[in-house]
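Check out one such.
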Amino acid sequence: MSDPAGHAAARTVTVTGFGTAEAAPDLLTLSVGVECRRDSAGDAYAAAGEASAAVTGALRSRGVPGRDIRTSGLNVRADVVWQEGRGQQVTGYVASSMLSVRLRDLAAGPGVIAAAVEAGGNDVRLDGVQLGFADAGAVMALAREAAWADARAAAAQLAGLAAAELGEVVSVRQHPVPSSPVPVGGMQRAFAADTMAVESGESGVSTSVTVEWGLLSGR
């Protein structure tokens, strides 16, 4: 269809580029679960509170400040089983909560984890360990530059194939890619044991950018 104003339609090319930057992490985040089963809801709730307080006390004694310890997911539920002829029967009550703990001294991580597990005993689960950055801005900037370079290289190739050249940037959109946690395999219910090593290695930050360029007639 012709343009009623007599103008040729502007030609553009839109490309999504991907970039990742890696650096040594400086933040370790623990997910520590507390789960207590008792005959009554009140006893389960009290036991969970005691176990959580013991874990928190152990963390504080190891130098973890209060601002880096957060409690979430407090829950009390009935533990039920199905019995033939009687239907669902309550066999007890379960109280649970989750502690999210940020450790800024990675070298102290194994000792802190061991202390928390020992303090909580059999009522504690270590649900996950995630390595990351206290301030990911600098690493994200490098990932963003890599994504931009990837997008521009692809756009330049496409422009060349279309016998054109890249013009000015029309629009830019960034799409952060969330990082995945580093799991601690095989630990569902924690117990006091030898200290487990946590190797930090390097962690990556990823992002993508979608960039639209105008196309100029090739010379």
